[in-house]
Backbone:
């Protein structure tokens, strides 16, 4: 079985009623709880979803050539030491043993992103986040110029998603 996780990039909370908006990623009570080895409920809930699934799919835009800050905050909070990785000497050992895919719609064109933004994002997410946490990368789907492309191109993007998911 597979579980597809869709990250709400605007605030990182899956339940709209509990959404914090664009507030601080870490709350004082979160830090205090983690020091006492108690995980905040929202983090614990997300970790249960990840533990249950086989495949995680992150859907997020690129903002200013990088991941959204709230997604980085999600990684900081949810992919915690002891859950997603451990340290062995000076090296990280991934614990998740899951598959991951990334879908990235973006407003900008392909040429700039293809030349230097995508390769940089690949290194940042693949090496320092996904592989460090034991996640095997199935692939990236990137959709440039989603705001300015034709409806036909957008339908083509959706077909790529369908084909990709059918192979998982």
Residues:
């Amino acid at each position: 079985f597979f579980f597809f996780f869709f990250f709400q990039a605007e605030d990182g909370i899956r339940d709209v009623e509990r959404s914090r908006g664009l507030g601080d990623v870490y709350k004082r009570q979160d830090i205090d709880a983690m020091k006492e080895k108690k995980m905040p409920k929202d983090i614990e809930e997300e970790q249960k979803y990840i533990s249950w699934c086989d495949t995680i799919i992150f859907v997020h835009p690129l903002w200013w050539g990088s991941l959204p800050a709230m997604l980085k905050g999600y990684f900081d909070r949810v992919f915690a030491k002891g859950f997603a990785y451990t340290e062995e000497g000076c090296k990280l050992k991934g614990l998740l043993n899951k598959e991951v895919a990334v879908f990235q719609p973006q407003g900008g064109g392909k040429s700039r992103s293809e030349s230097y933004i995508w390769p940089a994002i690949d290194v940042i997410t693949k090496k320092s986040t996904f592989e460090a946490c034991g996640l095997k990368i199935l692939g990236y789907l990137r959709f440039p110029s989603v705001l300015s492309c034709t409806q036909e191109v957008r339908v083509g993007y959706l077909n790529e998603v369908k084909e990709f998911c059918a192979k998982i």
About this structure: The helical segments are 28-35, 41-52, 69-78, 110-130, 151-167. The radius of gyration is 17 Å. DSSP finds five helices and five strands in the chain. The longest strand covers residues 135-143.
